[in-house]
Amino acid sequence: MNPEPSQPSVPAIQMEGVVVGSLRDQRAVVAEEINWTVHPGEFWVIAGLQGSGKADFLMMTGGLMGPLGGSYRFFGEPMPIFEGARLQHRLRLGLVFESGQLFNQLTVRENVALPLCYHRNLSQADAVGAAGAMLDLLGLTALAETTPGALGGNWLKRAGLARALMLRPELLLLANPLAGLDLRHGQWWLEFLGKLSCGHPLYGGRPITLALTTSDIRPWTGLGCRFAVLKDGRLSVIGPEAEFNGETRYLLADLIPETKRDG
Amino acid sequence: MQNGNITTFDSPEVRSLRPRRLWQFSIARIGRGLFRLLFTVRGLGAFALITLGVIFTKFGSARRLIRPLVYHEMARASVRLAPMFLFVSAGLGLLVIGQTVSWLTRVGAINYLGPVMVVVVFRELGPLLTAFLVLARIGTANVVELGTARAMGEVEALEALGIDPVHYLVFPRVLGMALGVFTMTVYLILGALASGWLWAFLQDVPLRPTQYIHQVAGALRGLDFALLALKTLAFGFIIAIVTCYHGLAQPLRLEEVSHATVRAVAQSVVACVLIDALFISIYLAVS
Lengths: 263, 287
Description:
The structure holds two protein chains of two kinds.
Chain A: E1 13-21, E2 29-38, E3 43-47, H1 54-61, E4 69-74, E5 77-78, H2 87-90, E6 93-96, H3 108-119, H4 124-137, H5 153-165, E7 171-174, H6 183-198, E8 209-214, E9 226-231, E10 234-240, H7 246-251, H8 257-262
Parallel strand pairs in A: 3-8, 3-9, 6-7, 7-8
Antiparallel strand pairs in A: 1-2, 1-4, 4-5, 9-10
Chain B: H1 12-57, H2 63-76, H3 82-106, H4 113-151, H5 154-160, H6 165-202, H7 209-219, H8 222-248, H9 257-286
């Protein structure tokens, strides 16, 4: 599904010897010695069991906290970026949270329009058109005036995706996108992310870089993704599915039960 | 058989330990309290400076989004509290006038009614009571809203979207509350002065409205207006800073929001009383 990406000189993500802290207690070390490079256009799946530190790793990658050690560059710029002067660079990255993390006092439409209103200095009324098109694309139009408290988990997550895509990020990070979804919604996500990875009309047919976390890699096999496993505080980069071998299967044993039985 | 017996706890060894342990315990408790106080003051100071920095550097940015939020916060801390303040101002007028008239009539000093109203209502009770009422109605809501947003990961979501949480969440609340406390203090004072005359009239005090207004106006000086404006803006600013700090500045879990609210209310009250004392000192020094 994923075309072989070109390898430009500046990687989207470049981590060397990175030490990851916890978002709740940044002095606690969740993972260390992480060396990971993501080139533009690649589609990465970070697999790990619950409690392996995937969420903290993704939050650090998303720039919500700095690494405790090592070097992390995002399109060549040191992360995290909090200064206003480098904000435009920071906006090349989008983050979709596991539960959507919508703002409860705003409607779905207002949530989706918020990044445009803030960064382009638009009023809610002015941003309605752009937000409406995004809601339409993601099948959320009927729920536009609903507040998040009245939405089910399937739709909350999809609204979170719509909000993250409003500024057309070049790198999209997703926390456990299939967790808690019913079959129909899960299938929709697989197809939509596949299209984003190949080149969606939303991006003028240009493929975007994707990285997501999961505790079950089975749905992601056969999609041309690259894999890495977060286990025992270390990130083991595996690569494409074609490169799975005996050692890889050991790493993935907990994440693909069939592998454990076969092995 | 001595183990477990009551005499074990009354032995000379235990008695010699008791005062020292109590003493050590007390010192440790005071020390912990002092350190907590210092850390809180440091945290509040840093948060206030960050907020001031954001107010000055981002005053005009994203104004089409932020300005309606400021208006909303102003309305919340002023217009929507008007009925409650009308009731309280009537009560305050009765409270002060009801007591004062009876005493001033006895000593034949009813001409001092205006000055007494100015000192009690204009300089002291009006601003402080307004600050406490706004704290109770809006400050507590601030901590709950922001604490819940923090616990639900909404603050991280804002940061992920490149939106400064201080700009989006704190800036409107600080401006709204500072202007709200100022507005409601003026409203409360005018209401209390009007109801004060009404209560005096009902008690058959021989005081014409013009005479009363003349007394009140005569007791007021330019400095009173300047200090009233500064004091009420400071009250609003400090209440907003303390409540936003406790809701936003530290990672919270949902079960901690109620504790954060109690802490914020207690610290806001202490801060307002300290600011009031500072303004009294300034007033006495200048006048």
